[in-house]
Specification:
Belongs to the MoxR family. GO terms for molecular function: ATP binding; ATP hydrolysis activity. The protein folds into 2 domains: 200 residues, P-loop containing nucleotide triphosphate hydrolases (Rossmann fold), CATH 3.40.50.300; 102 residues, Magnesium chelatase subunit I, C-Terminal domain (Helicase, Ruva Protein, domain 3, Orthogonal Bundle), CATH 1.10.8.80. The chain is an alpha/beta fold. A 5-stranded parallel beta sheet has the order 2-5-8-1-9. A two-stranded antiparallel sheet has the order 3-4. Strands 6-7 form a two-stranded antiparallel sheet. Strand 3 and strand 4 form a beta hairpin. It is globular. Helix content is 43%, strand content 15%.
C-alpha cells in the first residue's frame, strides 16, 4: 500500500477534530469536506437538532476560519445579508457596512423561510464570490462555503427556493436521526465538560488542499460517463431508458456534470488517491443530482422518488469497462 499523502493526513486530522465534538453523521461530514475541497456549496435537509450548526462551527474552528450564522426569517431583507451603504451625519459621507456573508463558512439556517428577494441576494455571492453594493464590488474571503439548511417537515411560512439558486448548490444532503448508540454518546458528551477544538490547519493550507483536489486525475472515460449520467436525467429515452421518460419534467444542468467531476476529485483526494474511480462518481451522484431533477406530475401522483430514479440511471446506464490512472495503468482501489 502506498504511503499516505500529506494532504490526506491533514484532512484526517481535520475530521478527527470534528468527530471529537460531532457524533456519527459520517456521510454528512464527508460531504461537508468534499464541498469544502471542491469549492462548492451545500444544501442540507434534516429536522432540527442534528448538529448541522455544530458541524460547520467546529469545522471553522479546526481551520482557524471565520464562521457566521444567519437565521432566515420572512422579515429579512437583502441588506441584512450582504450589507448596505450608511450615511455618516458627522462627516457628511457614505460608508459601506459589509454584511455577515463576508466570512469563510456561512450557515444559512432555514433558508426557505426568507422571501425570493432575499434569496436573490445570495445568487451573486454564491457564484461570483463577490457582493455588489452601490455599484462597487467586494470580494468575500477565500475559501468561502455556504451551507444552507431546510426543514423537510414544516411547510407553513416557507418559500420555494428559486431554481437558479438551487442549482448553485453543489450537493443536497439528506440527514436522518442518529442510532441509539450514537444518541447515547451524544447525551454523554452533553453532560461532560465541553471539548476544546484545536485548530489543525489554516485557510492557506485549506486553499492548498483545494488546489491539490483540482490536480486529481479524471480519466476521460469517467468524464464522459458523468456527462451521460447527467444527460440521462434530461432525456432518458435517448439512453435506452424509455420507461423513465414520463417521470422527468426537468433534468439536471451542465453545472451538475462539473459538480460531479469536481466532487469526485475531492473524494479521491480524501481517500489518499491521485485519480478518480468509478465508485467516487457513483457515491456522489445522488447528492449532486437529487435537487436538480424535477419529477413530472404523473411521477409525483405515483409517489415516485428522485433517489429511486437516480438508482435506475446508475444501474442501467453502461459504465466504463476500464479506467486508467495518471500513469496509464488500470486504476484500482489502494
Amino acid at each position: 500500500m502506498e504511503n499516505t499523502p500529506p494532504t490526506a493526513v491533514l484532512m484526517e486530522r481535520i475530521l478527527y477534530e470534528i468527530k471529537r465534538v460531532v457524533v456519527g453523521q459520517d456521510h454528512f461530514l464527508e460531504r461537508v469536506m468534499v464541498a469544502m475541497l471542491a469549492g462548492g456549496h451545500l444544501l442540507v435537509e434534516g429536522v432540527p437538532g442534528l448538529a448541522k450548526t455544530l458541524t460547520v462551527k467546529t469545522l471553522a474552528n479546526t481551520i482557524a476560519g471565520q464562521f457566521r450564522r444567519i437565521q432566515f426569517t420572512p422579515d429579512l431583507v437583502p441588506a441584512d445579508l450582504v450589507g448596505t451603504r450608511m450615511y455618516n451625519q458627522r462627516t457628511g459621507e457614505f460608508s459601506t457596512t459589509l454584511g455577515p456573508v463576508f466570512t469563510h463558512l456561512l450557515l444559512a439556517d432555514e433558508i426557505n423561510r426568507a422571501p425570493a428577494k432575499v434569496q436573490s441576494a445570495l445568487l451573486e455571492v454564491m457564484q461570483e464570490r463577490q457582493v455588489t453594493i452601490a455599484g462597487e464590488s467586494h470580494r468575500v474571503p477565500h475559501p468561502f462555503l455556504v451551507m444552507a439548511t431546510q426543514n423537510p417537515i414544516e411547510t407553513e411560512g416557507t418559500y420555494q427556493l428559486p431554481e437558479a439558486q438551487v442549482d448553485r448548490f453543489m450537493m443536497k444532503v439528506v440527514i436522518g436521526y442518529p442510532s441509539e448508540e450514537e444518541e447515547f454518546v451524544i447525551a454523554e458528551r452533553a453532560l461532560a465538560p465541553a471539548v476544546q477544538v484545536q485548530a489543525v490547519a489554516d485557510t492557506a493550507q485549506l486553499a492548498e488542499l483545494q488546489r491539490a483536489a483540482r490536480e486529481v486525475y479524471v480519466d476521460p472515460s469517467l468524464l464522459q460517463y458523468a456527462v451521460r449520467v447527467v444527460a440521462a436525467t434530461r432525456n432518458p429515452g435517448v439512453y435506452g431508458l424509455k420507461d423513465l421518460a414520463g417521470s422527468v419534467a426537468c433534468g439536471a444542468s451542465p453545472r451538475a456534470t462539473i459538480a460531479l467531476a469536481e466532487g469526485a476529485q475531492a473524494l479521491a483526494l480524501m481517500r489518499g488517491r491521485s485519480y478518480v474511480l468509478l465508485e467516487d462518481l457513483k457515491e456522489l451522484a445522488h447528492d449532486v443530482l437529487r435537487h436538480r431533477i424535477t419529477l413530472s406530475y404523473e411521477a409525483l401522483a405515483d409517489e415516485q422518488q428522485v433517489d429511486a430514479l437516480i438508482d435506475q440511471i446508475l444501474l442501467r446506464l453502461p459504465a466504463p469497462a476500464r479506467v486508467q490512472d495518471p500513469a496509464g495503468k488500470e486504476a484500482r482501489r489502494a
